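Narrative of activities, Objective 1.

The group set out to show that a structural description can be obtained from nothing but a protein's sequence at a throughput compatible with the screening campaign. Below is one input-output pair from the validation batch, recorded exactly as produced.
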Amino acid sequence: MDYGKYLSEDKIIVTNKDYYTDSGGYQNEKAFWDFVSSLTEQDRMYLLCIDVDLSPSNAKSIGYGNLVLRMLFTRIREVFPIFRIRGNKFNIFVPDDRVNEAQEIIDSDNSEFFVIHGEILTDKFVSHDNVNELIAEGIKKMFTEQDRQDPEMIIGDKGNTPVWQQETSTKKYIAEMWYATIRFREKKPIVRELIAYVFP
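Output recorded for this entry:
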C-alpha cells in the first residue's frame, strides 16, 4: 500500500462530474466557486442560502432523511443551479424572473418531511465581486429564520446554543458553531484574565 500517493503533486485525470460532485452525488462547493467565478450582475441572479432541517424524516430513519434530501435536491436542480456547501446547507442561484417559483419551494408545507430555513436575497444581484458579502448575509438570514421558527432557544445545559444548532450524533456543525464564553482569573503562576470558549 502506498499512502504517499495521496500526498503527491502528480496529476490525475478526472471528469468534471467527478471533480465537482461530492460523495453523496451533490454538486459541491468547488462547483459553486467555479460557477460564481464568471458570474456578473448582468446575469441577473439572486443568491439563496438554505439549511434543510430533516428532523421529521430523520425521526423515521437516517436513510429516509437522506432519501428526502435527495428528492428535494433533484427537484430544485431541475429548475435552479444548486450546490451543496456542507451537510444540509445549500447555495442556490435564482434568476430574477423565477423568484416566485423559488419562493414557492421555500414556503411549501412539507413539515412532515423537512423544513427549509433561508431567504432569497433580492437586494442585489450576485456576482463574483460581491458573493462573499451575500453569503454572509444569506447565512445570517438563514439563522434568523430558524430563530423565528423555534422560540425555545435553550434546552438542558447547552449554554447559549439554539436547539436547532446543537450537535447530535447525526448532526455536526463547523463554521456556524455556536459557543459560550467563560471569563476567569488565573492567580498562579501570574495573575491574568483568561477567556475560555466552550463549544457544545
